[in-house]
Amino acid sequence: MPRDIDLTFRQEKSKQENAPLFLYTLEAYDGINDLHLAGFDQDITYDGVLYSKFPITHEFISENNQGQIDQVKVRLGNVSRLIELYLEQYDFRGKRVIIRMVWLDQLADPDAHMDDVFYIDNYSADQKNVEFTLTGKFDVLGVDLPARRYARNYCSWKFKSAECGYVGGETACNKTKQRCKQLENYLRYGAFPSVPSRRIYVM
To answer: Would you say the pTM of this structure is higher than 0.85?
Structure first.
Protein backbone atom coordinates (compact mmCIF):
# COMPACT_ATOMS: atom_id res chain seq x y z
CA MET A 1 0.00 0.00 0.00
CA PRO A 2 1.21 3.57 -0.66
CA ARG A 3 3.19 5.23 2.11
CA ASP A 4 2.23 8.62 3.49
CA ILE A 5 5.18 10.97 3.11
CA ASP A 6 5.01 14.50 4.46
CA LEU A 7 6.20 17.61 2.64
CA THR A 8 9.36 17.98 4.75
CA PHE A 9 10.45 14.46 3.86
CA ARG A 10 9.85 15.14 0.16
CA GLN A 11 11.91 18.33 0.29
CA GLU A 12 14.79 16.71 2.13
CA LYS A 13 15.03 13.66 -0.14
CA SER A 14 15.16 15.92 -3.21
CA LYS A 15 18.31 17.70 -2.06
CA GLN A 16 21.28 16.59 -4.13
CA GLU A 17 23.72 16.90 -1.24
CA ASN A 18 21.55 15.28 1.39
CA ALA A 19 22.22 11.85 2.86
CA PRO A 20 19.76 9.64 4.71
CA LEU A 21 20.19 8.36 8.24
CA PHE A 22 18.91 4.88 9.03
CA LEU A 23 17.39 3.77 12.31
CA TYR A 24 16.76 0.09 12.97
CA THR A 25 14.27 -1.63 15.23
CA LEU A 26 14.71 -5.36 15.81
CA GLU A 27 11.65 -6.95 17.32
CA ALA A 28 12.63 -8.48 20.64
CA TYR A 29 12.59 -12.13 21.52
CA ASP A 30 10.09 -11.43 24.30
CA GLY A 31 7.90 -8.98 22.40
CA ILE A 32 8.74 -6.17 24.83
CA ASN A 33 12.42 -5.22 24.79
CA ASP A 34 12.92 -4.22 21.18
CA LEU A 35 16.43 -3.32 20.07
CA HIS A 36 16.61 0.24 18.72
CA LEU A 37 19.89 0.86 16.88
CA ALA A 38 21.24 3.82 14.92
CA GLY A 39 23.64 3.33 12.03
CA PHE A 40 25.47 6.48 13.11
CA ASP A 41 28.39 7.58 15.30
CA GLN A 42 26.17 8.86 18.10
CA ASP A 43 22.90 7.99 19.80
CA ILE A 44 19.82 9.35 18.07
CA THR A 45 16.50 10.22 19.65
CA TYR A 46 13.64 10.33 17.19
CA ASP A 47 9.92 10.58 17.93
CA GLY A 48 10.58 9.87 21.60
CA VAL A 49 12.62 6.70 20.97
CA LEU A 50 16.32 6.41 21.76
CA TYR A 51 18.30 4.61 19.07
CA SER A 52 21.71 3.55 20.37
CA LYS A 53 24.73 4.02 18.12
CA PHE A 54 25.82 0.69 16.76
CA PRO A 55 27.86 -0.68 13.83
CA ILE A 56 24.90 -1.68 11.67
CA THR A 57 24.27 -1.31 7.95
CA HIS A 58 22.07 -2.81 5.27
CA GLU A 59 23.41 -3.64 1.86
CA PHE A 60 22.76 -1.81 -1.39
CA ILE A 61 21.46 -4.24 -3.97
CA SER A 62 19.77 -4.05 -7.34
CA GLU A 63 16.70 -5.75 -8.70
CA ASN A 64 16.84 -9.16 -10.33
CA ASN A 65 16.01 -9.62 -14.00
CA GLN A 66 12.32 -9.94 -13.16
CA GLY A 67 12.33 -6.48 -11.55
CA GLN A 68 11.97 -7.98 -8.08
CA ILE A 69 13.93 -7.68 -4.86
CA ASP A 70 13.97 -10.96 -3.00
CA GLN A 71 16.12 -10.41 0.06
CA VAL A 72 17.99 -7.75 2.01
CA LYS A 73 20.98 -8.35 4.27
CA VAL A 74 21.61 -6.39 7.46
CA ARG A 75 25.07 -6.60 9.02
CA LEU A 76 25.80 -5.82 12.67
CA GLY A 77 29.16 -5.63 14.39
CA ASN A 78 29.80 -8.59 16.69
CA VAL A 79 32.92 -7.48 18.52
CA SER A 80 30.93 -6.83 21.70
CA ARG A 81 29.09 -10.18 21.28
CA LEU A 82 25.83 -8.40 22.27
CA ILE A 83 23.76 -9.60 19.33
CA GLU A 84 25.36 -13.05 19.31
CA LEU A 85 24.35 -13.45 22.94
CA TYR A 86 20.73 -12.96 21.97
CA LEU A 87 21.07 -15.41 19.09
CA GLU A 88 22.46 -18.10 21.35
CA GLN A 89 19.49 -17.84 23.69
CA TYR A 90 16.57 -17.07 21.39
CA ASP A 91 15.40 -17.86 17.88
CA PHE A 92 15.15 -14.62 15.90
CA ARG A 93 13.81 -16.23 12.74
CA GLY A 94 10.50 -14.63 11.78
CA LYS A 95 11.07 -11.59 13.98
CA ARG A 96 10.22 -8.23 12.49
CA VAL A 97 12.81 -5.61 11.52
CA ILE A 98 11.82 -2.00 10.82
CA ILE A 99 14.27 0.19 8.92
CA ARG A 100 13.41 3.86 9.35
CA MET A 101 14.86 6.42 6.97
CA VAL A 102 15.21 9.94 8.43
CA TRP A 103 17.27 13.08 7.87
CA LEU A 104 19.80 14.29 10.43
CA ASP A 105 18.66 17.91 10.19
CA GLN A 106 14.97 16.99 10.56
CA LEU A 107 15.01 14.87 13.72
CA ALA A 108 12.60 17.25 15.44
CA ASP A 109 9.90 16.43 12.87
CA PRO A 110 8.24 13.11 13.83
CA ASP A 111 6.59 12.87 10.41
CA ALA A 112 9.72 13.31 8.25
CA HIS A 113 10.54 9.63 7.88
CA MET A 114 9.77 6.49 5.92
CA ASP A 115 9.48 3.02 7.42
CA ASP A 116 9.93 -0.33 5.74
CA VAL A 117 9.20 -3.66 7.34
CA PHE A 118 10.93 -6.98 6.82
CA TYR A 119 11.18 -10.29 8.63
CA ILE A 120 14.29 -12.25 9.55
CA ASP A 121 14.55 -15.32 7.33
CA ASN A 122 17.89 -16.57 8.65
CA TYR A 123 21.09 -15.34 10.26
CA SER A 124 24.74 -16.20 10.75
CA ALA A 125 27.54 -14.98 13.01
CA ASP A 126 31.32 -14.97 13.15
CA GLN A 127 33.85 -13.19 15.34
CA LYS A 128 33.37 -9.86 13.58
CA ASN A 129 29.79 -9.68 12.32
CA VAL A 130 26.26 -10.94 12.64
CA GLU A 131 24.34 -11.00 9.39
CA PHE A 132 20.56 -11.15 9.09
CA THR A 133 18.91 -12.10 5.83
CA LEU A 134 15.59 -10.31 5.64
CA THR A 135 12.64 -11.04 3.43
CA GLY A 136 9.44 -9.15 2.68
CA LYS A 137 7.48 -12.36 2.99
CA PHE A 138 6.72 -13.81 6.36
CA ASP A 139 6.52 -17.47 5.33
CA VAL A 140 4.84 -18.57 8.53
CA LEU A 141 1.81 -16.42 7.72
CA GLY A 142 2.20 -16.35 3.96
CA VAL A 143 1.94 -12.56 3.96
CA ASP A 144 3.58 -10.62 1.15
CA LEU A 145 4.93 -7.24 2.21
CA PRO A 146 5.90 -4.68 -0.44
CA ALA A 147 9.58 -3.76 -0.56
CA ARG A 148 10.29 -0.09 -1.22
CA ARG A 149 12.93 0.55 -3.89
CA TYR A 150 14.96 3.73 -3.54
CA ALA A 151 16.10 4.54 -7.06
CA ARG A 152 18.13 7.64 -7.88
CA ASN A 153 16.79 8.66 -11.28
CA TYR A 154 13.45 6.93 -11.73
CA CYS A 155 10.21 8.00 -10.04
CA SER A 156 8.24 5.14 -8.49
CA TRP A 157 4.87 6.90 -8.47
CA LYS A 158 2.15 6.23 -11.04
CA PHE A 159 1.67 9.38 -13.15
CA LYS A 160 -1.15 11.56 -11.81
CA SER A 161 -1.70 9.30 -8.80
CA ALA A 162 -2.28 10.75 -5.35
CA GLU A 163 1.41 10.22 -4.57
CA CYS A 164 2.50 11.92 -7.79
CA GLY A 165 0.15 14.84 -7.24
CA TYR A 166 0.38 16.23 -10.79
CA VAL A 167 -2.92 17.79 -11.88
CA GLY A 168 -1.84 19.60 -15.07
CA GLY A 169 -2.83 18.96 -18.64
CA GLU A 170 0.08 16.73 -19.69
CA THR A 171 -0.85 13.13 -20.43
CA ALA A 172 2.51 11.37 -20.26
CA CYS A 173 5.62 11.30 -18.08
CA ASN A 174 8.79 9.23 -18.48
CA LYS A 175 9.31 9.41 -14.70
CA THR A 176 12.72 11.10 -14.87
CA LYS A 177 13.90 13.98 -12.72
CA GLN A 178 14.18 16.24 -15.74
CA ARG A 179 10.58 15.57 -16.75
CA CYS A 180 9.35 16.17 -13.23
CA LYS A 181 11.07 19.56 -13.22
CA GLN A 182 9.54 20.41 -16.59
CA LEU A 183 6.11 19.71 -15.13
CA GLU A 184 6.97 21.87 -12.09
CA ASN A 185 6.21 18.94 -9.82
CA TYR A 186 9.68 18.20 -8.42
CA LEU A 187 8.65 18.32 -4.76
CA ARG A 188 6.57 15.22 -5.44
CA TYR A 189 9.38 13.43 -7.30
CA GLY A 190 9.20 9.81 -6.17
CA ALA A 191 12.91 8.99 -6.34
CA PHE A 192 15.94 9.66 -4.16
CA PRO A 193 18.76 11.78 -5.67
CA SER A 194 20.88 11.13 -2.57
CA VAL A 195 21.22 7.44 -3.43
CA PRO A 196 24.69 6.73 -4.90
CA SER A 197 24.80 6.44 -8.67
CA ARG A 198 23.91 3.02 -10.11
CA ARG A 199 22.79 1.79 -6.71
CA ILE A 200 19.39 1.17 -5.18
CA TYR A 201 18.55 1.36 -1.49
CA VAL A 202 16.37 -1.56 -0.63
CA MET A 203 14.27 -1.66 2.49
So the answer is: no
Instruction: Determine, yes or no, domain membership for 160.
Output: no
d(CA 154, CA 175): 6
- CA nearest to 154, candidates 200, 112, 104: 200
Residue 101 resides in a domain: yes
CATH code assigned at 141: 2.30.110
> Is 98 among the domain residues?
yes
pLDDT in tens, 58-68: 876 444 445 44
In whole angstroms, give the CA distance from residue 38 to residue 101: 11
The H-or-E segment that residue 98 falls in is strand 96-102
State the Cα–Cα distance between residues 110 and 71, nearest whole angstrom.
28
Structural domain including 124 reads 7-147
Which residues lie below 8 Å from residue 109, measured CB to CB, with a gap of 6+?
Answer: 6, 8
